[in-house]
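subagent[fold] <- orchestrator: predict structure for attached chain, return tokens only, no commentary.
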Amino acid sequence: MDLIDLIQTRRFLGNEFLTWLWYKSEVFEGRFNIGKRGACEVWFDDSLTLEAVIVETERSKLKGASPSVSPEAREALRQGKLPTQARLRVVQDQQEYGFVFKAPEFALSSVRIPALLSDEEDEKFYERMYLIEEIESIIHDLYGEFLALRLSPTWDSTIVPWLRAWVMSEAGDVVAADQYRDALKTVKALESVRRFTTSPRPGSTPSDATAEDTAEDTADATAGDTAEAPADAAPATNGATTEAAATEAAAASGDAEAPAKEDAKDDAAGSVTDMAVSESGEPVIPPPPF
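subagent[fold] -> orchestrator:
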């Protein structure tokens, strides 16, 4: 399959990402926590376009104050239409961004950035470029969270039933925020995504959530340092003794890499249970569930 065909077969992910973003925005009332980046707000603004998955000519264009919560938007979802374009508003560190997100192309247009603080023309240019990169990285981090969830068993077993119930509900009922957080705890890949999300820019004030994460990381590092005390400072634990004995036994039998192989098997088993992959090693993305 060439690159063009691959892009065409994956275009539905943009629509699903926008649908998930819409749903999560209603679950958390627009307040998001994006890994190390911390807290930000994501809102659907004054325009929303939904299209039928099979018949592209069936399109609903909604404009006005908060069209995402309108009865027309709810009815379009029930008719099998998915959001293909929406004007979004993102607020982070008291700075507000606005843009139109086009789901099939995964592109941003009509981008509105916060007011520039620089006076010099050269500095204004670099500040503008920085702010544009900042909003792109926020979308990148949100998509990373979505994709980790989309490739996990939790998507089919939990998220899709929630989305269907939300679509069919007259009032647009969503699950409680705590219930959603509990479901995410089963997604192993999500921790890796959060660990490598873009950090807040230098000089910004960290949110409470970011400070909490930093405190947890510090505690983990302290615990790790304590566990790595010199061998002569304290007697080895039973686990360490067992591991050393296993290594010596493996070396005596001529297979010094046996413990490492066992660890690799355990890691592989964990990844298989969390994410399906093809024979070539690429993630298997199921077809759209809607």
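orchestrator: received. Logging for downstream: The two ends are 25 Å apart (CA to CA). The chain has a mean pLDDT of 74.
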